[in-house]
Amino acid sequence: MYLIFQNNKLSLRLLDETDIPLLSRWLSDLKVLQYYEGRDNPFDEEKVKQVFFSKDPSIQMCIVVYENIEIGYLQYFKLDAESKSEYGYELNNEVIYGMDQFIGNINYWNRGIGSLLVSSMVSHLVSIHIAKKIVVDPQTWNIRAIKCYEKCGFKKIRLLPKHELHEGEYRDCFVMEYKLLS
């Protein structure tokens, strides 16, 4: 298993096919789906294979491990020209990364692990991938995610109206940005 980083009790490793049952379990939990993918969109193992193992290879898909227990998922990617345009950075030549994550084991919610994960990933992207900016796009109603990102230094930059299909309707999202201070 390829380790991306370790920060004290938290580590991040690349996803592999042995993780299919784990992702399926998390993505069939209604409490998780409320925030990630939608409660009307559960994942069985076949759907996990189709969605996660046919993604663009430039998307780094990872498993979050805390105290040696697999608890969540994170993906990160360098924004290409199309993604930069989607987020309003079409005239920006800086290295910008995007990331998405969820804690799939709900026993690890409300323990500060999400903030530890986001801040650790920001440090990794800045130091290893030389990212100048990192963006996330939480849905505007997801106050938990927004507060986590703000705690980690992200700021709301712009609104993306009707950006993401969630539970049968297109939802507004914020572009939130972490900007490396020059």
Could you walk me through the main structural features you see in this protein, from its secondary elements to its overall organization?
This protein is of the alpha+beta class and 182 residues long. Helices cover 27% and strands 34% of the residues. The protein contains six helices and eight strands. The chain has helices at residues 20-26, 30-33, 45-52, 81-86, 113-127, 143-151, and strands at 3-7, 10-14, 60-66, 69-78, 96-103, 133-136, 155-166, 169-179. The chain has an eight-stranded mixed β-sheet with strand order 1-2-3-4-5-6-8-7, with helices on both faces. α1 packs across α3 (45-52). It is globular. The N and C termini lie far apart (35 Å).
In short:
With 182 residues, the protein is α+β, with helices and mostly antiparallel strands.
Secondary-structure blueprint of this entry?
Layout lengths: L2 E5 L2 E5 L5 H7 L3 H4 L11 H8 L7 E7 L2 E10 L2 H6 L9 E8 L9 H15 L5 E4 L6 H9 L3 E12 L2 E11 L3
Parallel strand pairs: 5-6
Antiparallel strand pairs: 1-2, 2-3, 3-4, 4-5, 6-8, 7-8
